[in-house]
Amino acid sequence: MKIATWNVNSLAVRLPQVLDWLATHPVDALCLQELKLSDDKFPLKELKEAGYQSAVFGQKTYNGVAILSKTPARGIVKNIQGFSDEQSRVIAATLDTPAGELRVINGYFVNGQAPATEKFAYKMKWLDGLRDWLREELAAHPKLILLGDFNITVDDRDTYDPQGLRETIHHTTEERQHFQALIDLGLSDAFRMFEQPEKSYSWWDYREMAFRRNRGLRIDHILVSEALKPQVRSCVIDKLPRKNERPSDHVPVVLELVSL
DNA sequence: ATGACGGTGTGGCACCGA
After folding, report:
1. Residue–nucleotide distance: A171 CA to B1 C1' (Å)
2. pLDDT tens-digit map of A159-169
3. Fold annotation for A2-257
4. Whose C1' is closest to the CA of A248: which nucleotide?
5. What are the domain boundaries of chain A?
6. Which nucleotide, over all strands, has the C1' atom closest to the CA of A38?
7. Per-residue pLDDT tens for A71-100?
8. CB-based contacts of A204: which residues, under 8 Å, 6+ apart?
9. A143 CA vs B17 C1’ separation (Å)
10. CA gap A179, A224 in Å, rounded
11. What's the CA A35/C1' B10 distance, rounded, in angstroms?
């Protein structure tokens, strides 16, 4: 059973690429971020024809998240419970999969612009709210996955220039402490459960031929709960879609779970 | 380096992303 995350940076532009990818990577569930469209513009029909149901929390122009799944999603929650948010950044659902009943929390985390800005402060508050809510979700759902675009590098291995980008956005101590607070709830970074290629990233800037020079960041993550850990077989980044024409700046990350 | 590229909504550009 496979589940993936992909920040598509406009589903309107990327739908053909998503359909292509699903045709070659028929995952059980695909979590999308940065739809950049309202619910009424969501391509429900096209995805249904590809074999996927959609739980959608859209927003015009910015943000927007969705969970595509082969089996119906239940218990859908939009945004962080107990945290008031104008922006559509989280959708959670319970899925019945070959690997069992899974709680899936799909997030488009706040970017944060730069330390000491209002947007950075919002990022920190948002992360606090997520942690508090996640504690409850974990208590209710032992087998839980938190995945999406975290907009945080975990350590030096996740960035092409650890020295030059020290304490800049996505690299600050404060962001990493907030990431650690999520880990401390009892979650594991599935990608680091395995040996991985050096300089593995999930995002590359469109500018300066960043992809060709592999100047990227690993900011798209999949965290798994303690109860799910024994079922994790692999976690890989699929960088191939970054070579598409008109690619997203992010690529999919894929988690494989086995049944017990 | 106030830049670069790309998406959106707008309107002759600005804003945002990371």
Report:
1. 21
2. 999 999 999 99
3. Deoxyribonuclease I; Chain A (3.60.10)
4. B6
5. 2-257
6. B8
7. 999 999 999 999 999 999 999 999 998 888
8. A210, A211, A214, A215, A216, A217, A242, A249
9. 32
10. 13
11. 20
